[in-house]
Design goal:
The chain has two domains: 192 residues, Rossmann fold; 177 residues, Rossmann fold. It contains twelve helices and 16 strands. By secondary structure, the protein is an alpha/beta fold.
Length: 395
């Protein structure tokens, strides 16, 4: 059960329910991913409650729609803490929203679980980061693309902090290669249209990079890929490589538009494991055709289970009591067994490279055979930060 503004919370069956904050965007330009994160969160809550809750206590998610607005994240996070009396918030997609909430949870000494890849170079005693750090996606993507296509790159991103920082990191990685070049770097608004990308596509045709690196997010992702398709460029020779394009964005643009482009992520629908099969089945049963499993929803799902397991040990979710049981904890997630690093609050994950296929999913062409520990400050700032198997790939 999840309650948004204007909705009523139903009767609580169990005594002393545990209220947790759920703060994502159900509307606005990033709502496609926000809904995925809400679904992953609520699926985990259902599973926990259906198996007895937390020592017999039901989890009640108190949910608000942040409307893809950093300002709304500030207001609503404080409302969750001061009015709804939650100790833990599960939320945020864009880095601008996380940075908006960070001083709020630090001020009131509450805990934020953040289920989104991000640019790294951050630590807070009040945040658990369950999405990929740059050494768990950027390093692997730069290595794969430069080895298979070449080392000249054109960068396109949305106009906020994550794309700027991610483009800086990918540029540093690509420029480690011989004969490497950065041929362009352009930024667009979060509501950019196909027309906005057409001028950029013309510049790309003239400069002819080996690949395009995209950190475009939200609804404008579909506009970028459609503009690419209409420009006559060929993903076999000049693909888009992204950290942010998931199955959810492909469902918006269409499988034919996404075909042949690459994404680096710790999770894809196509992972062949029992844990993932069960996750997809349960998500489909709970949300029907509205569910599109992706990296964001998977992180939102497993972080709730990590919280629940820690609560069972602590008997409370006040930060000083629960944190010792979160740090160092592990969970068998759909992507593999993940672990919260006690030194930096980030998560050990499984980097993978996928190429978009005709089914609207990703064919995994490379994947880690072990956890890659998080290195959010990129102390090891080089290509090759994984042990991986490489599938046969016809380019």
């Amino acid at each position: 059960m999840c309650c948004f503004i204007g909705e009523k919370v139903g009767t609580v069956a169990n005594r002393d329910p545990i209220r947790v904050g759920v703060l994502f965007s159900k509307t606005g330009v990033t709502s496609t991913i926000g809904r995925s994160q809400i679904q992953g969160t609520l699926l985990a809550v259902d599973e926990i409650n259906q198996t007895g809750g937390l020592d017999g206590r039901e989890i009640i998610p108190v949910c608000y729609d942040a409307r893809s607005s950093p300002a709304a994240y500030v207001t609503l996070s404080e409302q969750l803490i001061l009015q709804d009396k939650v100790n833990v918030i599960f939320g945020c997609y864009m880095s601008s929203s996380r940075k908006a909430v960070l001083p709020i949870v630090e001020k009131w000494n509450k805990l934020l679980f953040y289920p989104t890849l991000y640019e790294g170079f951050e630590f807070s005693n009040n945040i658990i980061y369950t999405g990929a750090a740059p050494n768990q996606n950027s390093v692997q993507l730069a290595e794969f693309m430069t080895a298979n296509f070449g080392a000249s790159v054109y960068l396109i991103g949305s106009n906020y902090i994550y794309p700027y920082e991610s483009n800086r990191i990918i540029s540093d990685l690509v420029l480690q290669r011989p004969n490497s070049r950065k041929l362009g770097e352009r930024y667009v608004t979060l509501d950019a249209s196909e027309e906005d990308f057409q001028v950029i596509m013309a510049d790309i045709r003239n400069k002819h990079p080996d690949f395009i690196f995209s950190t475009v997010v939200g609804d404008s992702t579909a506009s970028l890929y459609r503009a690419y398709a209409e420009s006559g460029l060929d993903p076999k020779t000049m693909p888009i490589a992204s950290l942010t394009t998931s199955e959810a964005e492909i469902s918006q643009m269409g499988a034919d538009v996404a075909l042949g482009h690459f994404t680096a992520a710790p999770y894809f629908q196509s992972i062949n494991s029992e844990a993932n099969k069960h996750f997809i089945e349960r998500l489909s049963k709970r949300f029907g055709s509205a569910s599109v499993p992706n990296m964001y929803g998977e992180a939102a799902y497993f972080q709730m289970h990590i919280y629940a397991n820690a609560f069972r040990h602590a008997g409370d979710d006040e930060i000083s009591r629960i944190m010792p049981y979160i740090l160092g904890s592990e969970f068998e997630a759909p992507q593999g067994r993940v672990r919260i690093d006690p030194a930096n609050h980030h998560t050990s994950l499984y980097p993978r490279i996928g190429v978009a296929n005709s089914k609207g999913q990703f064919t995994i062409v490379r994947e880690a055979t072990r956890q890659v520990n998080p290195d959010p400050y990129m102390v090891t700032h080089s290509l090759g930060d994984w042990t991986a198997t490489l599938s046969t790939l016809e380019l």
